[in-house]
Amino acid sequence: MRLSKTGMWNALKQHWPEYLIEAACLGLFMVSACSFGVLLEYPGSAVHQALPDPFVRRVLMGLAMGGTAVALIFSPWGKRSGAHMNPSTTLTFFRLGKVAPWDAFFYVVSQFLGGIAGVLIVAAVAREMLGHPMVNYVATQPGSAGARTAFFAELIISFLLMAVILHVSNTRSLSRYTGLFAGVLVAAYITFEAPISGMSMNPARTFGSAYWAHAWTALWIYFTAPPLGMLLAAELYLRIRGAHRVFCAKLHHHNSARCIFRCNFSALESQG
């Protein structure tokens, strides 16, 4: 694989709208996460005071973030960029041969910048509420079981998410519902898994919070476990179904938006 400056500038010139969309989508996801984090966890919030049970608050947070993920995936922007919003997802589709090297690079950079910017937007408004220890910029941190348990939890949930995405997005009768499957898993993970690892699956999402919270101690977990889990799911998929059964890198392809990936989605649609 050769990377050239010419290729870099061509990618920027042709695909910069998708790069900006990836930044904006993760930025909006973080705006939602921070806003609901303040609403549900800040001690002075009327909602927090009315809901003393942390499990109930996690259920609501899960529904909010799962719904946010679904809305972004099915939005016009998400349909255009493919709505990865996650370096682990982009790297996995790069490994599967569906994303060109420079596109993968700029998607990842855009996702990190978007994560940082999204938290900043809410911090500019919520200020001390977002920085309160009970909210802590919605940073993802290991639970009481420790870092090792958090690592394996992140590995497992990332593996399962990508396994579902690959199966559903490459099955003709299910592909249009990929975003719904992803949203349901996000909601379930926040509800049940968040006390173990904080529920990240996303290095850029974690970094966006950690940058403002100065929460660096467990960053290695969220930079290693999610991409490793998703790449393992991809390897398993390749062994079971083969590379020819990966049709595109978009999470929603039933639309008229252009596709910048190495796409063969028409072959999936033509299946009987």
What tags apply to this protein structure?
272 residues, mainly alpha, 69% helix, Glycerol uptake facilitator protein, 0% strand, 13 helices, single chain
Explain how this protein is built.
- The structure is a single chain.
- Helix content is 69%, strand content 0%.
- The protein starts with a helix and ends with a helix.
- The radius of gyration is 18 Å and the shape is globular.
- The protein has 13 helices and no strands.
- The mean pLDDT is 96.
- Helix 3 (54-74) packs antiparallel against helix 9 (178-192), helix 6 (101-126) packs parallel to helix 11 and helix 11 (203-213) packs antiparallel against helix 12.
- It has helices at 5-41, 46-50, 54-74, 76-81, 87-95, 101-126, 128-131, 147-169, 178-192, 194-197, 203-213, 219-241, 265-269.
Taken in chain order, the helices and strands follow as: HHHHHHHHHHHHH
- The helix count comes to 13
User: What are the low-pLDDT stretches, counting only 5+ consecutive residues below 50?
Assistant: none
User: What is the name of the CATH topology?
Assistant: Glycerol uptake facilitator protein
Q: Please state the overall shape, judged from the principal axes of the Cα atoms.
A: globular
Largest sheet, strands/sense/barrel: none
Q: How far from one another are the termini? A: 36 Å
* Counted beta strands: 0
Gyration radius (Cα, Å) is: 18 Å
CATH class (first level) name = Mainly Alpha
How many domains? The number is: 1
Question: What structural class do the secondary elements suggest?
Answer: mainly alpha
Beta content: under 5%
CATH architecture: Up-down Bundle
